[in-house]
Amino acid sequence: MAERDYVSTPASDELNLKDTILGLSRDLQDLRAGKISPTEAHARAAVAKQIWNGARIYQQAIKTMMGNAKPVQETDKPKQVP
Q1: pTM higher than 0.70 for the full model?
Q2: Of 22, 27, 60, 73, which residue is 20 to 30 A from 41 by alpha carbon distance?
Q3: Binning pLDDT at 50, 70 and 90, where does residue 67 land?
Q4: Following DSSP, what letter does each residue of 60-71 receive, concatenated?
Q5: Most distant pair of Cα atoms in the chain: their distance
Q6: CB neighbours of 62 closer than 8 A, spacing ≥ 6?
């Protein structure tokens, strides 16, 4: 089993990209089996394209924010009373 990529996995999980991939695969199988029309398959692919576009924008935003982030000094923590 391949080692899990903990850097990109949270975004992938948050955006449910695995479900999108599985759905596209299922759509292709349904198209080939004649269960959906080419027009419907095209519409589904267009929606999937927008999902991927959103994922790309999301990833780029995270990369930009992380690139501009600067470490902050530790703030004074309130003392805990036992």
Answers
A1: no
A2: 60
A3: confident
A4: HHHHHHHHH---
A5: 70
A6: 11
